[in-house]
Structure formats: C-alpha cells, structure tokens
Amino acid sequence: PTIIYSIANQKGGVGKTTTAVNLAALVSAQNKRVLIIDSDPQANATSSLGVKLPENGLTLYDVLVNKHPLDEVIQPTYRPQLFIVPSSPDLAAAEVEMVRFLARELVLKKAIEAISTKFDFIFIDTPPSLGVLTINALTAARHGVIIPVQSEYLALEGLGHLLNTIRLIRDNLNAHLQIAGVLMTMFDSRTKLATQVVNEVRIYFPEETFETVVPRNIRLSEAPSHGEDILTYAPNSPGSMSYQAVTKELLKRSEKF
Amino acid sequence: PTIIYSIANQKGGVGKTTTAVNLAALVSAQNKRVLIIDSDPQANATSSLGVKLPENGLTLYDVLVNKHPLDEVIQPTYRPQLFIVPSSPDLAAAEVEMVRFLARELVLKKAIEAISTKFDFIFIDTPPSLGVLTINALTAARHGVIIPVQSEYLALEGLGHLLNTIRLIRDNLNAHLQIAGVLMTMFDSRTKLATQVVNEVRIYFPEETFETVVPRNIRLSEAPSHGEDILTYAPNSPGSMSYQAVTKELLKRSEKF
Ligand SMILES: Nc1ncnc2c1ncn2[C@@H]1O[C@H](COP(=O)(O)OP(=O)(O)OP(=O)(O)O)[C@@H](O)[C@H]1O
Ligand SMILES: Nc1ncnc2c1ncn2[C@@H]1O[C@H](COP(=O)(O)OP(=O)(O)OP(=O)(O)O)[C@@H](O)[C@H]1O
Ligand SMILES: [Mg+2]
Ligand SMILES: [Mg+2]
C-alpha cells in the first residue's frame, strides 16, 4: 500500500518543511517512489526542491478548489524517484473558498485515492495553522502525523492544542491518525533549556519520539537557497547525518504497514 | 494620539512574538503607557510575559466574537506601564466564526477606538498567516506594520505575498498602513547567506529596514520560559542590547506622529 505521512505543527518555523523535504528526498534515495505534497501557500517545499512553476502551472489549489485530478498536477524533481505536487500563494484563498464545500475536510484524501501512479510513500507538508489545509492533510494521513518540535520553550506551548486537533480528527475523519513520530529539531547543545525541552517531550511521548535529535546546522538553512535537499547539498554535514538517521528510524517504523 | 503598530509576517518562527514582546516592554520602560494585544491563538506573547489566564478569563476572542469591550479584557503585567490583551487557543475559532460578520476586518480597529484607558503605544502580535486575525491587526495598525524577517533564505520567499496583502489593505481598509519598519532577526554571522539576505532586504526596503540587526542569541529563546522580556531576564545580553537599539530607532521614527 502507499504509506502516507503528514508533517504538522501549527507553531511557526519549527522545521516542518525542512523535515518534509529531507525525509521525502532521503526515502526516495532508498529507491522508493515518493511524492511530496506542498499544502502550504508559502510554497517553501516547492522552492526548497528548486521547482519553478510554469506560468499557467497547476498546483494543489487546482486540485482542492477546481477538482483537477492530482495526476495532472504532479511534477518531477531533480531526484528520479521524487515527485511533487507544488503549491503557490493562491492556495491561501482555498481556506476561504472551501468553507462551503460539502465534506471539505476529505477533498485531499479523495484526490490521493484517485491517483493512478503508484507511490511507495507520500509526505504532506503543511502551513503553520490548524485550518482547512492542515485538517485536509491530517485526514489524508493514513499512516499518521510526524510532529517536528523545536527544542525551545515556546514550542512546547502549542503541543496540547495540536493533540486536541489530532484527537478530534481521529474521532471524526481519520481513525488511522496516529502520531507516527515526534522529531526534536534545531537542538542547540549550548543551552540547558534545549535539553530540558527534549527530556520533557520524551516523557510525554515515550514511544513516539525519535531517538535521533536534529541539531541546529547552518547547512540545513542554506540548502533551500540552492533548491536542494541536504543529502545533495551537504551530504556529510551534521544536518544530513541526522536526517539520514531519522529516515532509517522512520523506514523501520513503516515496516509494520 | 495613541501610536498603533502591528507586527506581522506570515512566515512562521521569524521572531514576531519576540519582537512584539520586547519592543512593548522596552518602550514601556521609557515611561510610556503601552498595551500589547496578542492576536495569535498560540498565545505566545501572553505566556512570554508570564500572564496566566484565570479559569473564566476573558481574551481577545471575547472582544472579536462576543463584542466584549476591550477595557474589560485588559490585564496588567509585571511591568507597571505594560498591559496586555491576552489570547488563548479558542481564538482559532474566531477565524471561522467571523467569516459571516459584516465588516469583519474592522472589528479590532473599532474595539481599540472604544477603549477609554489612554495608551501611548499599542503593539499587536499576529499569527503566522494572512487570515482574518492578521487582517484585523493590519487594519487597526494606524501607524504601520513592523515586519520581522529572519536572516535566512526561506524568509525572503514570502515577502512579496505579504506586500501584496499590505497593499490590498491600504487600498481598501486602512489608508495609513505603511511599513513602519523591517527588522532583520536571528542574524548568524557564521554564514555568508545571512549577510546576503540582509543586503538584499536593504536593497528592497532602503528606508524601512532598521539599522539594527538582531543577532541569534540564546537568551532571547530562554526569556519566554521565565515569563520575562529580555531587559528583565538578561539585560546585558546581545539580544537585549539589540532590542534596546531597535527601540531607540522606533521611538525616533515615531516622533513624526
Ligand atoms: N536543524 C536546523 N538547523 C538550522 N536551520 C534550520 C534547521 N531546520 C530548519 N532550519 C531553518 O529554519 C527555518 C525554519 O524552518 P522551516 O521553514 O523548515 O520551518 P517550518 O516549520 O516549515 O516553517 P513554517 O511554519 O513557516 O512553515 C528555515 O529557514 C530553515 O531553513
Ligand atoms: N534573535 C533570536 N535569537 C535566538 N532565538 C530567537 C531569536 N528570536 C526569536 N527566537 C526564538 O525563536 C523561536 C521563534 O521566535 P518567535 O516565536 O518570536 O517567532 P514568531 O514569528 O512569533 O513565530 P510564530 O510564527 O509561531 O508566531 C522562539 O523559540 C524564540 O524564542
Ligand atoms: Mg514550512
Ligand atoms: Mg508568534
């Protein structure tokens, strides 16, 4: 079956896009056929992979609002086994336009079910909010949600609210929605607070938290400006090593499906 | 007159709350009477100032959706001249509930006009999106918007979209909406990219970009866990020094009003 993960956390700037892009790229490097869906109007996943939209380019907006088949919107990337459904700022309008749709939370899930091209994995990047776009991604995430948590104090604040939203969606829209993993990101060993935050998250999510902690690493923030994933841009960097380790852990957890 | 600034950028984690909280605190330390309005459902500005909501506590939600007078929702902080309109996760529901309101973009502006307590400055923190809550804050910002920009590549991507939104609001809702300032944040001198981003932003916004660049400084990420602003938590830190310099620049720019 196609394994589908969403990457979500309404806190801004915690590494959702960085995680979605690098997991998708690294899993595709293991000779798996991977699709990344960019459901954020900022379209950071799209630009991080160097994907330029042609003038009349179709994006996820066309799928959600104009019911275009997903097959027609899928684009290749520089990695042979990695494909993308790109986003654009127009997608911000989808939040309002979809308010009156019947079963508006299920639109993305149904669009994914209809694609004819077979993928081994699908990763869905989400915006920093819990609106219609993120709810669609959580409803479509048949195998669960990966939650990046920045190793900083403010990142802990919003976790309770995210868990409530996940529970609501599990009860009403997607019975399979588990927490597939909690990934500590931007860990800075120079501050005690980072270690305290990591320890606290491990207590709350003992099973779900990945062993691997992603350190703060400049190469990860530089890679998007080259339109490359970290394995392509700086394969031996601490950022690359840690995302390779996370990918191993995730593939191991995925074996049960 | 009361000088009203909103702090906005739909990119997540760029330092909006850190800027709103520390500017508000530092301006209040200059013996000005300051109100900070937290319009983000994450309520990070509320917790960064150590403000705990009483069980039946009134928040901005009650003002926007239940038309409570703002006067009744204002709370004190540990700083004698700094007051806050707190937020809570319920505010996320306001985005949907306000869709059918007449003139939904003007609700916050009208609520601020009705407050009897006089303030010298009002700072409005916003969520990482361009939805109804941020539009309300931009419409209420009589003296302009302060845009924090993280000194990283992905931060540049969304600026065009933010400028379009500002232009739309200026044309339709708030003729005074200027860019009061562009603040470069989380500057990391170890990477060339940061300097490139700062230079590029200065080219785009030669007048608006503050001279001061806020460096990445661990004390700024630790202060919220103590419920304190940076001047209280680590007065001599690089983070505190830079926000003091920004405050001086902002007060100078405010003299023209
Ligand atoms: N481990 C890391 N070390 C250093 N920089 C990082 C790391 N992870 C992400 N970054 C950088 O931090 C910024 C925020 O990361 P990213 O954009 O992935 O977060 P996000 O959660 O997707 O943000 P948004 O909420 O806006 O969607 C980006 O500039 C990114 O390049
Ligand atoms: N100059 C800085 N140096 C180091 N850490 C910083 C700096 N500015 C902000 N931070 C930390 O970075 C994280 C993101 O900052 P902040 O929460 O202020 O951003 P934001 O734009 O308000 O995020 P959101 O989009 O979620 O509202 C926080 O943990 C904060 O403490
Ligand atoms: Mg992102
Ligand atoms: Mg914030």
Give me a quick take on this structure:
The structure is a homodimer of 257-residue chains. Chain A is of the alpha/beta class and 257 residues long.
Quaternary organization? homodimer
Name the ligand types.
Answer: adenosine-5'-triphosphate, magnesium ion
Radius of gyration of chain A: 17 Å
**Total helical segments of chain A:** 12
Strand order of the largest sheet of chain A: 3-4-2-5-1-6-7
| Percent in helix of chain A | 40-55%
Question: What overall form of chain A do the CA principal axes indicate?
Answer: globular
Strand portion of chain A: 5-15%
List how many beta strands of chain A DSSP finds: 7
Low-confidence stretches of chain A: none
Helix-strand pattern of chain A: EHEHHEEHHEHEHHEHHHH
Overall mean confidence score, pLDDT of chain A = 95
Broad structural category of chain A: alpha/beta
- Straight-line N-to-C gap of chain A: 8 Å
The interface involving the most residues is between: A-B, 38 and 39 residues
Q: Biggest β-sheet of chain A: count, sense, barrel?
A: 7 strands, mixed
